[in-house]
Amino acid sequence: MRNSQMTPGIVGGRLTPETYGENFQDLHAPLDHHEAAVAADRCYFCHDAPCITACPTEIDIPLFIRQIATGTPEAAARTIFDQNILGGMCARVCPTEQLCEQACVREAAEGKPVLIGQLQRYATDTMLDQPHPYTRAPDTGKRVAVVGAGPAGLSCAHRLAMLGHGVTIYEARQKPGGLNEFGIASYKSTNDFAQAEVEWLLQIGGITIEYGRTLGGELTLGELSSDFDAVFLGFGLGGVRALQIDGGDKDGVRDAVDFIADLRQADDLSALPVGRNVVVIGGGMTAVDAAVQSKLLGAENVTMVYRRGKEAMSASQYEQDLAASKGVRILYNAAPAAIIGNGAVREIEFAYTDSSGKPMGETFRLPADQVLRAIGQVMNTRPDTLEMDGARLTVSHTMRTSQPGVWAGGDCVAAGDDLTVTAVAQGRDAAMDMHNTLTGKGA
Ligand SMILES: Cc1cc2nc3c(=O)[nH]c(=O)nc-3n(C[C@H](O)[C@H](O)[C@H](O)COP(=O)(O)OP(=O)(O)OC[C@H]3O[C@@H](n4cnc5c(N)ncnc54)[C@H](O)[C@@H]3O)c2cc1C
Ligand code: SF4
């Protein structure tokens, strides 16, 4: 007999093959030509447009929307890629409701912004199956090492290659893309888009990726610094914060990022086991993604539990609404106290908390056969010669670390907000400063 949503334990095949297909299709269907023209027509092409300032990569949004409106989406794509070479992925994953679309004057006036994210996707999609639009400057003879093939590393590498430098990326995994490939929710990046985008980006030439090469493993920062003219660190946050409660090691308890990575790499979603009663601990984007995808995989009950109030949650209102619309229950002001079960998790006990997240004494239990921890990521590569700001690398406004010749960007640095678009912006800005330094134009 086939499994169903009610089958106890952590099992696969809870849904019909058609339902998996429907559940994991694109969150937003791409705009067709007519829809794009109508959406572009709503833009006022503002002078000093607030949407540009709200974009971490400062894309000239009114310009690219005007290019769409005048029927030249390739030119629009070029406007986007000039600032953000991963503009295709950002169009899919950016929390636009907190960035450009929140700043859009039509949002302020009517509560309905111009669909900037979807228009960006419309434009960039026209270019990705065409020859790469950029060419390299003459070879400078300079060689740069980039650690990590995530958004920060790829953006940095592309800009450096374009400026004529030779780049070697050292990537710990066997595939490029970082969290674009292993973290972003499946319904935001469908049809293997992350790999297609990297292949397109690498067409610039001058970039070599060495897989299975780990800084802090067989590679040291000292060696990279002496073998290359400059180094960029874009290794993200590879570790996960521990859940320090009784029973945290029981079967059925795992990190949400690993669960999501398995999902992103699965060829057959029906083979992916998920619990009947899933409890996700955390209040960020990772928690929402893990909860929504558990539900889409056929879990009967999915509850997200956050230790503080709704207003303190880092997942946006849009993300919270998305979770609720998929049937995820969100509980606020409750902190995990113990995981109960004989070998495998059976229940999880929570303590009610006050507004600061402190337990108040009273407790309750939820049935759970799977518990997903999403309580934050931590840096697990830590070159000990570099200055830290808290748990992340200290960088200047031009992304220089405390060590001359070493730059950094993306999630591993203290400046930023753990978004794909910010990692892209920082990788690009570091590349520009490296270029100025390597060619004697900067300090
Ligand atoms: C589950 C999840 C969902 C998310 N969803 C969104 C979203 O919808 N929208 C959004 O804007 N942001 C989202 N984010 C955040 C976003 O993915 C990150 O901010 C972004 O990927 C950071 O890019 P990065 O290049 O700094 O790091 P990463 O993407 O983490 O890439 C780092 C790369 O370095 C490699 N690496 C790590 N250590 C080493 C080492 N020692 N040596 C060599 N290589 C190494 C890694 O394998 C990886 O390829 C999400 C994050 C998570 C965890
Ligand atoms: S703020 Fe809105 S209306 Fe103004 S330029 Fe930007 S997208 Fe267009």
Ligands: flavin-adenine dinucleotide, iron/sulfur cluster
CATH class of the largest domain: Alpha Beta
Query: What overall form do the CA principal axes indicate?
Result: globular
Strand order of the largest sheet: 3-2-1-4-17
Residues in helix, %: 25-40%
Largest sheet: 5 strands, parallel
Radius of gyration of CA atoms, rounded to a whole number: 23 Å
Count of structural domains: 3
Residue windows where pLDDT falls under 50 for at least 5 positions? none
How far is it from the N-terminal to the C-terminal residue, by CA? Answer: 70 Å
Give average pLDDT, whole number. 96
Do you know the CATH architecture of the largest domain? Answer: 3-Layer(bba) Sandwich
**Residue fraction in strands:** 15-25%
Structure description:
Helix content is 35%, strand content 17%. The protein is an alpha/beta fold and 443 residues long. It has three domains: 17-25 and 240-377, FAD/NAD(P)-binding domain; 33-127, Alpha-helical ferredoxin (Fumarate Reductase Iron-sulfur Protein, Chain B, domain 2), CATH 1.10.1060.10; 143-238 and 379-438, FAD/NAD(P)-binding domain (3-Layer(bba) Sandwich). A five-stranded parallel β-sheet has the order 3-2-1-4-17, with helices on both faces. Strand 11 and strand 12 form a beta hairpin. Helix 2 (33-41) packs across helix 4 and helix 4 (61-69) packs antiparallel against helix 5. The longest helix is centred in the C-terminal third of the chain and has 19 residues, at 420-438. The protein is globular and about 65 Å long. 46% of the residues are buried. The mean pLDDT is 96. Bound molecules: flavin-adenine dinucleotide and iron/sulfur cluster. Residues 93-94, 147-153, 170-173, 178-179, 183-184, 188, 214-216, 234-236, 238, 257, 260, 285-286, 289, 381, 410-412, 418-421, 423 line the site of flavin-adenine dinucleotide.
